[in-house]
Amino acid sequence: MAMLAAQNLTLAYDQQVIIRELGVTIPNGKVTALVGPNGCGKSTLLRGLARLMAPRAGAVLLDGKSIARLSSKQVARQLGVLPQGPTAPEGMTVRELVSQGRYPHQSLLRQWSEEDEAAVEWALETTALADMHGRVLDTLSGGQKQRAWIAMTLAQQTPVLLLDEPTTFLDMAYQVEILSLLDELNEREGRTIVMVLHDINQASRYAHHLIAMRGGQVVAEGDPRDIIDHSLICDVFGLECHVVRDPVSGTPLCLPQSCPLRLLNKEGRDTTP
Amino acid sequence: MSAKRQDGNDVWLVVRLRGLSMRLPRRSLPVMAVLLALLATMTVLSVSQGELRIAPFEVVRAVVGLDTGNPDHALVVREFRLPRIVLAMLVGTALALSGAILQGITGNGLAEPGVLGISQGAGLAAVALLTLSPATSGNLLPAVALLGGLGAAALIYLLAWDSGSSPMRLLLVGIGVAAVASALTTYLIVLGGITEVQRALLWLTGSVYGRSWGHVRTMGLWLLVLAPCALLGARALNVLTLGEAPAKALGQRVNFARTGLILVAVALASGAVAMAGAISFVGLVAPHVARRLVGPAHEGLLPVSALFGALLVLVADLIGRTVIAPAQLPVGIVTAVIGAPYLLYLLLRGRSA
After folding, report:
1. Which chain B residues are closer than 8 Å to A131 by Cβ?
2. Which residue of B has its CA nearest to A48?
3. pLDDT 10s digits, B130-188
4. What is the rounded CA–CA span in Å between residue A162 and residue A180?
5. In sequence order, which residues have a C-beta less than 8 Å from that of residue A10 and are 6 or more positions away?
6. Which of A24, B47, B174, B196: CA 20 to 30 A from B150?
7. Of B35-39, B195-199, B280-284, which range is least confident?
8. A88: phi > 0 → left, psi -120 to 50 → alpha, else beta; which?
């Protein structure tokens, strides 16, 4: 099992420090969600964990070893990464994209082994794309496209998956489709999943572990059921919220206090729990 | 739903031997076969055309060294026509591979050696030699043009480097360097004597007129080294076209791969320009056509581009030699006449999409 952690991690773009001396441990075999307001550094932290960004100071540790010291391919065999809003070249088919996921397992002499082929079949089956493997990506729906990219990272067969806003820009049904797929992967295969999510309610529903960030710092972390309450949402998002139990999943559900005036005038405000 | 679901073996031809394995996109195989057949046919047709017409059958006999009953045939075919035709194909191959690599790295379909300033750099160096020191220009010309192309590429790369090799910066800086090189070239042409300028202009247009087996050997060796490098880069190119972040996430060392591939593309283009001048649009058009035919996987795209580039320059040269015979159009004019409308078509199609 691959254990991922950040130690005194400082991440910066040029002169602008986004994350300063942050320490965090990603629980093994769990779904972890990074949440927080725009610009809080959650995507930057994910990029740092994924080795897409070199740390200014500190380190990201994989099984206790700094990933900066490992080769790109060694890291790519441990961490599957889905960056934000990826675009595929024109005319590429689902199968062609998914097979790219085998790149870190290949070499000049071993360009397409039987394991490569099996991993691609498995990834296509798992994401329910086997029947449209020959389709050109441009002809797919947003959700199918995102599933194809996830299939690519699955074909990498890594113990850890890092996803940057996998549901952004998707319709609600597609969002649920993607999150259920990730949940299943975690449940059935025990993959460690780390994802940046915009929606705190989705995060509390699908994640075992929540890391709430603000201004490049971790404000709170833990089981969403333990840590999400009125004061945390106020603290992290600066928003007055009413926290109730999600009637479907039993997880915390945040309802902003703000409400259109016409509704308040007509019905009054009901604050009974 | 179809009765038999497709699997990977319908898409790729996979060859495995012990621990070794490789694969080729299946749909590129028939395309390559057709292109090879077309190349052979057009070569024979091209050799047969000219002031002295030679029947295709006689051409084949003369090429393989059999007696055709006319002693002129062997000379015309093997010493006059064949070298320029073979050189045209080699130059087309090099330009097309260079364009395919540059388009893959930049993820921009408009990238080609002529846009990135490589051809202009080579052109500037060559025109400087032709106009400033006409006496020494004969054998030095290819070497000087090569240095000019490599020099321009180095300049572009240094100017575009910003703690990484951003493809967009490469393109923009390349366009800038190309403009400066073109301006300097024009300046030299304005200053030069009339005979030198005429040679320089012909060279700038791109021509395979009067090339010998010596040129073919040099270009052939150049390709023998660089074409395999390009093909070995196919899988890296596949990953790079996904974008910088996905490529890194898949374990590709992005700057390292880009630098290496740019070096190969620049060397290919500079070599071609050194041998036959600045033949335009081949590096742009050939990869586009290849992508239409076999899709974006570079294992198929690169060889199909190369073959199509060879065919394009071969046919352009044939048209240039015959359309206003006995006068000849330089091959670069013909490729521009074919290429420019295609470029416009690409832009128009992009607008409607």
Report:
1. 1, 5
2. B249
3. 888 777 666 788 888 889 988 998 898 888 887 666 777 888 898 899 999 999 999 99
4. 16
5. A17, A19, A20, A21, A22, A55, A56, A57, A58
6. B196
7. B195-199
8. beta
**pLDDT band at B342; cut points 50, 70, 90:** confident
In a domain, B19, yes or no: no
CA distance linking residue A252 with residue A140, whole number of Å:
34
Quick one: tokens of A190? Answer: 């025990």
**Would the CA dihedral through B139, B145, B151, B157 be positive or negative?**
negative
Nearest CA in chain A to B290: A91
Q: What ranges do the domains of chain A cover?
A: 1-78+158-224, 91-156
Q: What CATH number does residue B228 fall under? A: 1.10.3470.10
- Considering the domain boundaries, does residue B144 fall inside one? yes
Nearest residue on chain B to A88, alpha-carbon basis: B242
Instruction: Tell me the per-residue pLDDT of B203-257, one tens digit each, with 9 for 90 and over.
Output: 888 888 878 888 899 899 999 999 999 999 999 999 999 988 999 999 999 989 9
A28 touches chain B (CB under 8 A): no
Domain that holds residue B270: 27-352
d(CA A83, CA A47): 8
Instruction: State the number of CA atoms in the 13 A half-sphere of B134 facing the CB.
Output: 12
CATH architecture of A1-78+158-224: 3-Layer(aba) Sandwich (3.40)
Contacts of B1 in chain A (CB under 8 A): 131
Instruction: List the alpha helices (DSSP H) in B241-281.
Output: 244-249, 254-276
Using the structure block, give the residue that is written with the tokens 């991690």: A9
**Whole-angstrom distance, CA of residue A113 vs CA of residue B296:** 21
- In terms of Cα–Cα distance, which of A76, A72, A6 is closest to A42? A6
**H/E run at residue B184:** helix B167-191
> How many angstroms separate the Cα of B144 from the Cα of each of A40, B24, B184?
55, 38, 16
B16 within domain boundaries:
no
Q: How many domains does chain B have?
A: 1
Largest CA distance in chain B: 74
